[in-house]
Write a structure and sequence with these properties.
- The chain is α/β, with parallel strands linked by helices.
- It has 3 domains: about 1-30 and about 210-275, Helicase, Ruva Protein, domain 3, CATH 1.10.8; about 45-205, P-loop containing nucleotide triphosphate hydrolases (Rossmann fold); about 280-370, no CATH class.
- It contains 18 helices and 7 strands.
- The strands form 2 sheets. A 5-stranded parallel β-sheet has the order 2-3-4-1-5, with helices on one face.
- The longest helix has 18 residues, at about 15-35.
- It is globular.
- The structure holds adenosine-5'-diphosphate (ADP) and magnesium ion.
- Magnesium ion (MG) binds near residues 76, 156 and 185.
Length: about 375
């Protein structure tokens, strides 16, 4: 899994083979290195943490949790933290009780965080989809935990389980032994049967907002002994679309690329088309009625390799025209409309001579609409 991500990262990066190799290597390290070890280090998921804290404090711990959210927002991290909280025993022994306040590293903490504890079983449903995998797991659930308080089963990407596997799981989920807890994580909750969902306490992990994400990056940059321009970090945070893992992976490449100095210019180059925020900027400029800047932004996207092809629906032709003409009628100036025409023709902004574009009145007059690039 991690390998695929690295390969994709390399392929998308214009930094050359040497920078690519360095980037992919440290990418894995950086995301793993800064995996939160405490709930207080988890950013952007305050509502979930507060709910869990109250539940644990009052002893209302669910039998099964369902963590949903897009990639890289902390599902696996939270699952491990819950497993650790359930089995928290302060150092030096004693009974203790499940708690979210794990100031000191307890007896089982390290093993759980490194996912090598015997009583905390992690299963990746993406590669173990069948009933046999689930049956093994359920069979072992009947035995008491070896050393910990609870046997915790973490099933990642749970939506990938087969129908049979879900059915197999359901029975145990209905009446789980006292010592068993389930934690499921998924990026696609709607693919999980309602019968399973209804037996879990569900938390929807949020995308992390740009500012807290940029602050997190700044703190990691400082811990790494690197330097970064605030604008560069904001750009990374924006491009990551709320995923901390994505942000860390970009940061990783930026640090490798600039040998420890992350500048806005380098990040812009690194991101290239991956910065989807640029599309929204373009849309905003168009909606604000600023054709000059819109065309500049479009040209810059084109320079970076964006393909300006009409969509299949547009290629089909006639069906799309009424809507298109409607949009153009609202356009503010001849220049603006010429720009759109040229865009439609798939030509560079300066390539279509003025005489080849019909007067605006053609469009507005009703009959001339078809002339648009047809
Ligand atoms: N909410 C968060 N707060 C801080 N770091 C996070 C958060 N979410 C993800 N990360 C970072 O991203 C990495 C991957 O997170 P993970 O929990 O595996 O994401 P996923 O939601 O895909 O399971 C972590 O190791 C950590 O460095
Ligand atoms: Mg995960």
């Amino acid at each position: 899994m991690a390998k695929v991500e690295d390969q994709q990262g390399n392929a998308a990066k214009p930094g050359g083979p040497i920078a690519s190799a360095a980037g992919s290597q440290s990418h894995a390290a950086l995301a793993r290195k800064y995996r939160p070890k405490l709930f207080s280090e988890l950013i952007g998921q305050d509502a979930m943490v507060q709910t869990l804290r109250n539940a644990f404090a009052s002893g209302r711990i669910a039998q099964a949790y369902m963590l949903t959210g897009v990639r890289g927002v902390g599902k696996t991290t939270t699952a491990r933290l819950i497993a650790r909280a359930l089995n928290y025993v302060p150092p030096g022994g004693g009974d203790g009780a499940p708690t979210l306040d794990m100031g000191e590293e307890g007896e089982h903490c390290r093993a759980i965080l490194e996912s090598r504890h015997l009583d905390v079983v992690e299963m990746d449903a993406a590669s173990h989809t069948g009933i046999d995998d689930v049956r093994d797991l359920i069979d072992s659930a009947h035995y008491k935990p070896n050393t910990a308080r609870y046997k915790v089963y973490i099933i990642d990407e749970v939506h990938m389980l087969s129908k049979q596997a879900f059915n197999g799981l359901l029975k145990t989920l209905e009446e789980p032994p006292e010592h068993v807890k389930f934690i499921f994580a998924t990026t696609e909750a709607r693919k999980v049967p309602v019968t399973v969902l209804s037996r879990c306490q569900r938390f929807d992990l949020k995308r992390i907002e740009v500012e807290p994400l940029a602050l997190q990056l700044a703190s990691i940059v400082a811990q790494e002994g690197a330097e970064a321009e605030p604008a560069a970090l904001m750009m990374i945070a924006r491009a990551a679309e709320g995923s901390v893992r994505d942000a860390l992976s970009i940061l990783d490449r930026a640090i490798a690329f600039g040998s420890g100095k992350v500048t806005a210019e380098a990040v812009r180059g690194l991101l290239g088309l991956a910065d989807r925020g640029r599309i929204f900027d373009l849309l905003e400029t168009v909606l604000a009625g600023d054709p000059g800047n819109a065309l500049k932004q479009l040209a810059s996207l084109t320079n970076d390799g964006a393909a300006r092809r009409p969509s299949p629906r547009q290629e089909e032709g006639a069906a799309a025209w009424p809507a298109r003409r409607g949009a153009l009628r609202g356009a503010r100036s001849d220049r603006h409309v010429r720009g759109l025409r040229q865009y439609r023709c798939g030509q560079p902004m300066h390539a279509v001579p003025r005489r080849e574009t019909r007067p605006l009145t053609d469009l507005r007059g009703g009959g001339g609409g078809r002339s648009l690039g047809a």
